[in-house]
Amino acid sequence: MPKDSGIGASSKRREDVRFLTGTGNYTDDINLNGQAYVHFLRSDVAHGRLNKVDTSVAAEMPGVVRIFTGADFEGVGGLPCGWQVTDKHGNPMQEPAHPVLAQGKVRHVGDPIAAVVAETAAQARNAAEAIELDIEELPAVIDMKEAVKEGATKVHDDLESNLCYDWGFVEENKAAVDEAFEKAAHVTTLELVNQRLVANPMEPRVAVGDYNRATGDSTLYTTSQNPHVIRLLMGAFVLGIPEHKLRVVAPDVGGGFGSKIFHYAEEAFCTFAAKALARPVKWTSSRSEAFISDAHGRDHVTKIELALDADNNFTALRTDTYANMGAYLSTFAPSVPTWLHGTLMAGNYKTPLIYVNVKAVFTNTVAVDAYRGAGRPEATFQLERVIDKAARELGVDPVALRRQNFITEFPYATPVAVEYDTGDYNATMDKLLEMVDRDGFEARAAESAKSGKLRGFGVNTYIEACGIAPSALVGQLGARAGLYESATVRVNATGGLVVMTGSHSHGQGHETAFPQVVADMIGISEDMVEVVHGDTANTPMGMGTYGSRSLAVGGSAIVRATEKIINKAKKIAAHLMEASEGDIELKDGQFTVAGTDKSVAWGDVTLAAYVPHNYPLEEIEPGLEETAFYDPANFTYPAGAYACEVEVDPDTGKVTICSFAAADDFGNVVNPMIVEGQVHGGLAQGIGQALLEGAVYDDNGQLLSASYMDYAMPRADDLPSFQVDHSCATPCTHNPLGVKGCGEAGAIGSPPAVVNAVVDALQRGGHNVTHIDMPLSPGRVWQAMNG
Amino acid sequence: MNYHSPSSFEEASAIAAGASGTTRFLAGGTDVLVQLRADIVTPDDLIDIKHIPGVKEISRTEDGGWRIGVAVAGAEMTECADLCADWPGVVEGMDLIGSTQVQGRATLVGNLCNGSPAADSVPGMIAAGCTVTVTGPEGSREVAVEDIPTGPGRTVLAKGELITGVTIPARGEHGGDAYLRFIPRTEMDIAVVGCAVNLRLDGDTITEARVSLGAVAPKALLVEEAANAIIGTTLDDAALDALAAAASAACNPIDDKRGTIEFRTHVAGVLAKRAAKIAYARAKGESA
């Protein structure tokens, strides 16, 4: 029987009312008295020397307040990188400067050269056109393998080369891995591309900088997934503003998918210019601008090899990956192809020996950073594709080959430095096969054949490391930040609660799910609990929302703070009922004394806390407000099995997804409806990558797919009705809710299922196609079929 | 920028003829206004022809054909049941352009004059044998649709000339037409290949046919060899293969990220077959 409130209930998302009725408060809705508008003049060449930026004519244009160039930022810090990777020789990565506005050189199409502040946005745009530029064009560095060749043009003149780092993981295991390959009975090799993607959240980025001359305080309103992180990075590393003089507000945010984690030049610029001009400065990105200034995702070129013994047991895995960093290091870019990718290469399998090599490369393209899944989709895709290829080469059932190699005992320490706490990969696979009616496939394939279509079935598993992350561990791995989360729970005199969280909701439904947890713990109605987030002025220091961490880490902080509240409330209740604290029980919002009929209500206790006339003042303070910081002991490991059935039109290569099923283990679930929605969204994004999306640069560094005319986003009519299940739950063992996180799973697990299914369809149709690189557009599928 | 709102085509033509800078005619505005807002083209003279009497009318001609005004939107064509019954291929080509909002504004003539080789409404008009009336300083003349575009973004229209209406011939007995396009997704994208087929039957045998291809050459093509491949046949497999071969042979496409030359050439043949089958079924009165 489904619950109708609290943990486990499908409570309706309360925030949706304002989103759907146009009463949300997004950053672009914020308009301050006297605000000016900024337009960024961006480079239209990929690589060039800035010989001259002449703003003299533009500065005289109507409405222009002031024009800023790189020279204005010479005494100002550059945008910092939040993660330092150490290469396989023990040396730190090469870390180039990242100026707010270009200095000396432009390094990608979209690199900001000058910023025009004017009375209106149109005046700023017009004046930007009048800026005179002399750019000496240099050869563009686009292809990663060319970029790291001896003598290649350098993106950054002051670095030794275009190689950011050459990372080996685990370097000490390399010899043993190589030896296992020499002894292998069978080796399957696959070369593939995990293509570059553009996040494209519905709301483009916006920043409004404000400066209060009376107090000297700066405020930045921005489209961010983590306002405290922006405050820390921008305040400490770029502008030199201490945290107590800087407030960062991320109000309603219309989707992020990773791209709004990072600290961007436009945020620093608006904050800087507001102070310089003593008036608010606003920037709103156009969609075209977003394509060439938001951090992109993925962009790996990989060779993966899987070694098996004569009994088809996986004995070793070896990968060689080139990961595109773009022109500059975005905030968390170096961590994505390394610690978020290499550590997941074991997947759901007990492969004993693994070696991952990653070469991160600078190119004259937009910076690449975390994008829904961040490293884990890249790991899952290559692993699940090579296993499928191995099954085909060996003539064994791809499900059976996977099952044979599944990890079945937990906790399990992988050879790539992480320890899975719980899981049951056979259970999710069993559930999946039950959902998809695999036995009926041949009949469906025969039906497809009647209309000339090839039908295929693809299956895969995935695992991810979420709930990031134990601070001490990530510190050892190069993170320049901790990854705890925080919550303050404030109980008001009349019994209602406000939860101030360091997590940030930009579509995840925190305003609904977090109250479910708190209300369940106290036994009161969910609508007595309100969530406040997104403003550094009224929430405790938090690390924000990404990596499927908010319920696992932020939710745990809320649980801890609520536990403190309950403990204190019990003391007050004990005093009111003249009983011993140890005998007090809290159920359904009533405090009772065990074994008696005495009781006081939640509201009586909260009132006593704030009107302490009859109160144990000698033992405890008045008031009822507690803060907790939660630092997780381990990552969480959501896992699952996905299956896809496709039809391919052999005349045109067009792929139609007939069905898609996802059996996930997210541990305990607070709101099943929200979880289902998160999975649906993730699947749409993963299928978008598999079939439609791809950012394409030409040899000159021009982004060819720089609008929705050329970058195909998935739409409802591209997708089937999903089958989603999360009943095979093995609760996380180390956080109080037993939750694992569900935000990225769909995007991680779905691309290999689609590609496996298409390859299966083509093989069944007699085409010896072993791999097609994504997106599986009709042209690519047709080309693969026709050699 | 000077905005003009003439009350007759002659006046519109005179304004255009007398203008010295960049001139644009405004009907639906789905190309002109977008280019204007994006600072791609800022006309010196913008001549709004929406207010000329009759431009929003769909009417019957005396011989049973159709006359479509220059400001008739795609959505208005789709809602005209008799037009859809006569020329489903012409209507479905127009209907594929843009979103629901764009459908409320976009026009056949605008799509034609924009000069895109991938314009979705153009192959259907060519296959149907449509003509347009061109009015200019020297008077008016009727021009076949296939003779209007000359290359990407270019038309035969001279200074001061504009199109004042589209004539679709009478459908007649036992005829059918169809338009199909191929794109990486189902709507709102630029065609990789577009193909329209219009034919007439005597019993089961095709007696007349016109085949037009879009997006495979610098302008939409009328492919006589493809039509000849099915005239005199009952659209059997051999005829379909000959049609596909002729359609592919007529292609002269470009290589780009949407499709290779080889793929576009192949798909042109596939679409020709499929469109011909639909047109054939429609000519027989079967639903397709």
Structural notes for this entry:
- The complex is a heterodimer of chains A (787) and B (288).
- Chain A has 787 residues and is of the alpha+beta class.
- Chain A folds into three domains: 27-138 and 202-255 and 260-293, Aldehyde Oxidoreductase, domain 3 (Alpha-Beta Complex), CATH 3.90.1170.50; 390-466 and 634-786, Aldehyde Oxidoreductase, domain 4 (2-Layer Sandwich), CATH 3.30.365.10; 484-630, Aldehyde oxidase/xanthine dehydrogenase, molybdopterin binding domain (Aldehyde Oxidoreductase, domain 4).
- In chain A, the strands form seven sheets. Chain A has a seven-stranded mixed β-sheet, with helices on both faces. A five-stranded mixed β-sheet of chain A has the order 7-15-14-13-8.
- The radius of gyration of chain A is 27 Å and the shape is globular.
- The model of chain A has no long low-confidence stretch (mean pLDDT 97).
- Chain B has 288 residues and is α+β, with helices and mostly antiparallel strands.
- Chain B has a domain at 175-283: 2-Layer Sandwich (Enolase-like, domain 1).
- In chain B, strand 8 (149-151) and strand 9 form a beta hairpin.
- In chain B, helix 10 crosses helix 11.
- Chain A binds chain B through residues 651-653, 692, 696, 704-705, 709-710, 712, 715, 717-718, 777-779, 782-783, 786, and chain B through 182, 184-187, 189-190, 192, 257-260, 262-263, 266-267, 270.
